[in-house]
Specification:
The chain is 5% helix and 41% strand. It is built from 1 helix and 20 strands. The radius of gyration is 27 Å and the shape is globular. 34% of the residues are buried.
Amino acid sequence: DENGAPPLEDEENISDEDDLVELPGGIDQLESIMETMQQAKDNSIAVFKDHGKAVFSCAFHPELENVVVSGGEDDAAYIWDPTNTDSKQKLDDWRDSVNCVTWSNDGQHLAACDMAGNIKVFKYPGLTVEWSFEVGDINWLKWHPVANVLFAGTADSEMWMWKIPSGDSKLFQGQGEKTECGEILADGKRAVCGYSDGSLRQFDLKSGNTVNTFPKGLAHIDVVNCVSGHMNYTLFLSGSMDGTAKLWNSTSGKVVGTLLCGAREEENSSSSVECAIF
C-alpha cells in the first residue's frame, strides 16, 4: 500500500466472485437442527397429566408400588397409579398451591400442606382427614422415621412437631431466619434445621433445647438448602447456596469435612448445592 506495508498473502487474487462454502439445506435445515437439539428427550415410561400447573412435590407410598401422591400449583393433590397413570383420588379444598406431600413410615398416614400454611393429615386407605392445623408459610414437611410424629419448618424461623392424631405439639424457635430445611437424625431423638442466613441448629426433641448451634460463617455463608442424616452414624450433611456441602459430627458439633462443589465458597454461587442425601 501507499505506506509501504506488504500485501496480504494472495490479496491480489481475492475477488467478490469467489465461491463461498454452503451448507446443504441452508438456514432452514440449521434452524431445524437447533430446534431438535433444544427439545428434551422424554425417557419416561408413564406421564400423569391431571395437574393443570407446575408440580411441586411427589412421593411414592412406602409399601405400595402402585400408589403415588403429587401436589402442585393448581391447588390440588392427586393420588394416582404410576403403572397406568390412572387417577385414584383428587384431594382439593386447599387455599393455595400444595407444596409438600409426604407419607408416614408405615404408609398409614399422608400429610400435605399448601403455601397458605394449611396442613392436613389423611388416614390411608380411605383418605379421610384425621387431623388439620394452620401455621405460617411452610417450607418443608417431614415425618419421624419411626413414630407417627410430623414436623414442619416455616418462614417464621420455627420448627413445629405434632403427635398424630392427638395433635400434641412442641415448637422449636430459630433466631428470625427462615427455616429452609430439616432432618430427623437416625436416633429419632434429635433434629437439625438449616436456615436462610447459612446457620444450622440441632435440637433435642424431648426437651426442646438447642443442642448445637452452627452460626453463619462457621456453617455456611449463604442459604442452607438441604440437610441429610446418616442412617447408621452420628453424621449429617448440609448443602448450601454458597457452593459447599459440609459433613458434621452431630455429637461433637464439629465439621468433619467440606466438599467444594464450585470454584470457591461464595454467596449466591453458580454451583449452589440444591440437594444432598445419604
